[in-house]
Design a protein that fits this description.
The protein is α+β, with helices and mostly antiparallel strands and 225 residues long. The chain contains 2 helices and 14 strands, in the order H-E-H-E-E-E-E-E-E-E-E-E-E-E-E-E. The chain is globular and about 50 Å long.
C-alpha cells in the first residue's frame, strides 16, 4: 500500500512539474523577441480592410477626436485601371460635437499592394506613384519612402494643390510588437503610428500633428481611445 501511495504521489509531482514547465514555456513565448514584422499585411489592415478606430487628445482643456472608418468597396476603375477601393470616412469632433466630416476612396491593387490615389466628393483628386514595392516582411529599424502623391483640385488634374511623400518605418514597441509609422512630409507634418503584432494585427494607434500657428509650431498627439 505504501508503495502504491508513493508512486501515486510521485506521479502527481511529475505531472505538476510538467505543467509548470509548460506554463513557464508559454510565458516565455509571449516575451520572445520578434525582430521582423509583416509590413504589407499591416498596411492592408489599416487602409483596405473594414475597421473603425477613434483617436483623441486634450487640447487647451478641450477634447478633440478623430473617428476613422474604413469600408471596402470592391472592384472599381481608377484612371482607366481595374483596381479595388476602400472608403475612408473621417469624423472630427470638438467636445463631442461633430465639426467636420471628410470622405474619400483609396484605390489600390493587391499582390503586391500598390496604391494609385484617391478621390473625394469635395472634388480633391490624388495620383499616387509608388516608388518601391512594399515589403512582405521588414526588420526593426527599417524604413523606406514608398509613395509620392500629387493632389489636384479635381479630376481634370489642371490645378495642383499639394505634393508630398509617404515613408514607412518600423521601431520597437515591446518584445513582440512594433510601431509601424507612416510619415507625411507636408507643410503640416504628421505621423501616424500603429502598434502591430507579428501577424500584422493593429493593436492601437496614435497620430502626431505638427502645424504652424501664431508664429510657432503647435503639436497635438492623438492616441487610441
Amino acid at each position: 500500500m505504501k508503495t502504491v501511495t508513493f508512486c501515486l504521489l510521485a506521479s502527481l509531482v511529475l505531472s505538476a512539474h510538467a505543467a509548470e514547465i509548460k506554463t513557464n514555456s508559454s510565458l516565455d513565448d509571449t516575451d520572445q523577441v520578434v525582430n521582423q514584422f509583416p509590413v504589407e499585411t499591416a498596411l492592408l489592415n489599416i487602409y483596405t480592410k473594414e475597421s473603425s478606430r477613434t483617436l483623441s487628445a486634450i487640447v487647451y482643456g478641450h477634447k478633440e477626436s478623430i473617428e476613422i472608418k474604413v469600408t471596402p468597396k470592391g472592384n472599381l476603375t481608377f484612371e482607366n485601371i481595374l483596381v479595388q477601393g476602400a472608403e475612408q470616412r473621417f469624423t472630427y469632433r470638438y467636445d463631442d460635437e461633430v465639426i467636420e466630416e471628410s470622405i474619400g476612396i483609396n484605390y489600390f491593387t493587391l499582390n503586391p499592394l500598390t496604391f494609385y490615389g484617391f478621390d473625394k466628393p469635395s472634388g480633391k483628386y490624388s495620383l499616387a506613384t509608388q516608388t518601391v514595392v512594399i515589403p512582405k516582411m521588414a526588420s526593426i529599424g527599417d524604413s523606406n519612402q514608398f509613395v509620392t502623391e500629387r493632389i489636384y483640385s479635381d479630376s481634370s488634374k489642371n490645378t495642383p494643390v499639394d505634393f508630398y511623400n509617404l515613408t514607412w518605418s518600423l521601431s520597437r514597441a515591446s518584445a513582440n510588437t512594433a510601431w509601424l509609422c507612416i510619415d507625411i512630409d507636408i507643410y503640416e507634418n504628421s505621423s501616424e503610428c500603429y502598434q502591430i503584432d507579428g501577424s500584422g494585427n493593429i493593436l492601437q494607434s496614435k497620430k502626431r500633428l505638427q502645424y504652424w500657428a501664431e508664429n510657432s509650431f503647435e503639436i497635438i498627439n492623438y492616441m487610441s481611445e
